[in-house]
Amino acid sequence: xxxxxxxxxxxxxxxxxxxxxxxxxxxxxxxxxxxxxxxxxxxxxxxxxxxxxxxxxxxxxxxxxxxxxxxxxxxxxxxxxxxxxxxxxxxxxxxxxxxxxxxxxxxxxxxx
Length: 112
Ligand code: 5GP
Ligand code: ZN
Description:
single chain, alpha+beta, HIT family, subunit A, globular
């Protein structure tokens, strides 16, 4: 989508600190990190949020990327958090599906 920030990152029109990419996904550092390591895992294709996912198997492949990046970034085996904010009440601010991968500190619960 032409006015989507994350599509612009996928296309290389907005710079991002990429830590992983393949033909289906990219992972890059969040511009406003909430933990020492805070990455965003996104599909290259524009899907607005979790409820709009048609290809459910894509989510399995996405979580395989989460596992790969967790090892790559030294988050596993100690632990980390994966977050998806879905929709307005879920706190989603960018309408391109993304999973936050957070770690490098002890995570607290409950979230705000
Ligand atoms: P949400 O609130 O939708 O779950 O998360 C959106 C995330 O995208 C936020 O953590 C925000 O800091 C991040 N973000 C927004 N715009 C940009 C950008 O242009 N570049 C990067 N790297 N992250 C962004
Ligand atoms: Zn998009």
